[in-house]
């Protein structure tokens, strides 16, 4: 008697599944497409006008980051503030979102007479702060975020660190990686716009720390800090990386410090080296590279090999050409190693023949010398010499036979002949 209600329940269940199945499939498809279309990289920061010896050039951490991303074939969402005088060509190929301002952040660069110390002065400012609200919705879901503040007021890094991820990202356990090129947060400006470094961590920097944050600074900003403070702050972050110029860099993570050896090159200008280092590191981290620090040092070496006047475009070209040359060198090295191996095998195969010939010649000379020493009749000596020659030929033949047998065995082994 219970079969009737049971069949009714089963029929209702099947009908419910039939109705819900299309909705579930559509939802799964939309979520899959959403994940596939997730941007790989979000770059946020001010593009700048850099004035060097009266000549203008494009600059800013975000410009160098875009150049590195282009070199690696990574399309990024780029959010920047710029005025009408900004050169935005370096962002070609990326998804660019410009917050319009009356003026572009402008730095005047000057150098000491011996040329190894740079001084900066801000001569124009957009007078606005970039925050997460300036970022389009789809760009907020990027796998990696790289922030490039240049002054304490031009970017609110904490708004990105404290950004709450969507429900879907929470469900799948997605953790957005944030790289903070924090040099700008360790700068102050005097009344004339002259840039000076802070002697201790700024409040803006401390607010931006978190388990997802990788912080990038140089020893210029951190060497004046109290002992132990760097380790303390690194423990509150995913990692810290401190670049040290020609001495490479140090990575602080998991309460350990690792030295990253530099790529030895002839340095021409160091402008942009830290920005390229940070970008290359975060990209290598995203693709799970074996040694992100080594990749970052190599890319930074491309930046210091060029004068500031051609940057950041020549940095992009240097990475592409350098990578191609590195691949070519690796190919040549593989070919040379293969040839060395083949020559070794050939020498091993010819060895028995060479040894047999040497032994035959030695036997011939020994018998010939003994024949002369005994002063036997010419006929007898001639027979002895003839016998020695025959022995030499026999040894050489045996050696040749061994070479042939060895060669045939190697061919069988190589081509799996039976």
Your description of this structure?
With 418 residues, this protein is an alpha/beta fold. The chain folds into 2 domains: 37-311, UDP-N-acetylmuramoyl-L-alanine:D-glutamate ligase, CATH 3.40.1190.20; 339-415. Helices cover 47% and strands 19% of the residues. It is built from 11 helices and 15 strands. The strands form 3 sheets. Strands 5-4-1-8-9-12-13-14-15 form a 9-stranded mixed sheet. A 4-stranded mixed sheet has the order 3-2-6-7. It has a two-stranded antiparallel ribbon with strand order 10-11. Helix 2 packs across helix 8 (273-286), helix 2 crosses helix 10 and helix 10 (313-374) runs antiparallel to helix 11 (378-415). The longest helix is centred in the C-terminal third of the chain and has 62 residues, at 313-374. The relative contact order is 0.08. The model has no long low-confidence stretch (mean pLDDT 81).
């Amino acid at each position: 008697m219970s079969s009737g209600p049971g069949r009714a329940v089963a029929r209702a269940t099947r009908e419910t599944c039939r109705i819900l199945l299309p909705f579930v499939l559509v939802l799964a498809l939309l979520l899959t497409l959403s994940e596939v279309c997730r941007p790989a990289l979000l770059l946020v920061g001010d593009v700048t006008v850099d004035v060097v010896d009266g000549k203008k050039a494009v600059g800013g951490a975000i410009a160098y980051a875009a150049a590195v991303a282009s070199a690696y074939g990574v399309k990024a969402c780029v959010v920047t503030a710029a005025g009408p005088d900004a050169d935005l060509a370096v962002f070609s190929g990326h998804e660019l979102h410009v917050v319009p301002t009356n003026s572009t952040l402008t730095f005047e660069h000057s150098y000491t007479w011996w040329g190894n110390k740079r001084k900066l002065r801000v001569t124009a400012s957009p007078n606005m702060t970039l925050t997460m609200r300036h970022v389009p919705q789809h760009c907020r879901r990027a796998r990696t975020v790289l922030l490039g503040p240049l002054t304490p007021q031009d970017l609110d890094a904490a708004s990105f660190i404290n950004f709450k991820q969507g429900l879907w990202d929470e469900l799948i356990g997605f953790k957005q990686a944030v790289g903070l090129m924090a040099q700008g947060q360790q700068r102050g400006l005097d009344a004339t716009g002259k840039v000076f470094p802070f002697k201790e961590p700024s409040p803006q920097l401390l607010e931006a720390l978190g388990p997802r944050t990788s912080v990038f600074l140089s020893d210029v900003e951190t060497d004046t800090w109290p002992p132990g403070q760097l380790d303390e702050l690194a423990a509150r972050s995913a990692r810290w990386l401190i670049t040290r110029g020609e001495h490479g860099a140090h990575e602080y993570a998991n309460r350990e410090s690792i030295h990253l050896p530099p790529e030895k090159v002839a340095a021409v200008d160091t402008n942009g080296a830290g920005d390229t280092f940070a970008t290359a590191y975060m990209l290598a981290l995203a693709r799970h590279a074996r040694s992100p620090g080594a990749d970052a040092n190599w890319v930074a070496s491309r930046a210091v090999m060029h004068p500031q006047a051609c940057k950041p475009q020549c940095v992009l070209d240097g990475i592409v050409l350098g990578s191609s040359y590195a691949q070519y060198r690796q190919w040549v090295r593989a070919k040379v190693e293969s040839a060395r191996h083949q020559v070794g095998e050939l020498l091993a195969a010819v060895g028995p023949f060479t040894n047999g010939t040497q032994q035959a010649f030695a036997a011939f000379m020994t018998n010939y010398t003994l024949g002369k020493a005994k002063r036997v009749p010419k006929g007898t000596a001639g027979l002895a010499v003839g016998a020695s020659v025959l022995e030499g030929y026999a040894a050489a033949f045996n050696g040749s036979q061994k070479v042939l047998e060895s060669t045939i065995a190697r061919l069988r082994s190589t081509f799996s002949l039976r």
